[in-house]
Amino acid sequence: MEQTTSDLVLFFGRFHPIMLHLPIGFLLIAFVMEIMSRYKKFEAYKPAVGFILFLGAASAVVAAGLGLMLAEGGGYGEDLLSLHQWLGIGAAAAAIVSLVLHQMVQKQKNPAMDKAYVSTMSVMIVVLMAAGHYGGSLTHGSDYLTQYMPNPLRTLAGMEPREEKEEVVIT
To answer: pLDDT digits over 6-65, tens only?
Structure first.
């Protein structure tokens, strides 16, 4: 018996591309503000980090849920979709763990817990960037970022040089 996905699930899934930008922005801002707030000049940022991290974690959970709904519609390469999906879920989970650790650090001021918190946030950012990259590859193609990369950068990255196009001059 073939299982069909409801139109309502597919409808809400289409909001994934809109929603996914919120956690990216919130979580990046929370990370940058956390790092900056450790310097005397920027310590006033410290109280806002928890709220921004909460917004990032909450919007990451919503974005991941909408992404799961969008995937139900099919039409994506399975391997790339699976990688993007698990990285997205991982980013949401790391955001939640970061939020919990942030709250614990605020209460206990434990240096080991603070180190775990900053480490988790760092992993969260790396996973978030990877999820974003593979999501972009799903929608724009795997060579989207490198298609117009200049040859010196391509060589540095270990890629084949692009064929140079002849410029046509119209007189």
So the answer is: 889 889 988 888 899 999 999 999 999 999 999 999 999 999 999 999 999 999 999 999
Q: What is the pTM of this model?
A: 0.83
What tokens were used for 63?
Answer: 């974005």
Of the CA atoms within 13 Å of residue 14, those in its CB half-sphere come to 5
Query: What count of other Cβ atoms lies within 10 Å of the Cβ of residue 36?
Result: 15
Contact between 127 and 91 (Cβ < 8 Å): yes
Task: Check if the beta carbon of residue 13 is closer than 8 Å to that of residue 73.
Answer: yes
Side-chain half-sphere of 72: how many Cα atoms within 13 Å?
A: 20
> How far apart are alpha carbons 80 and 96 in whole angstroms?
24
Report the first-to-last Cα separation within the chain, whole angstroms.
66
CA–CA dist 85, 127 (Å, integer) = 11
Q: What is the DSSP letter of 66?
A: H
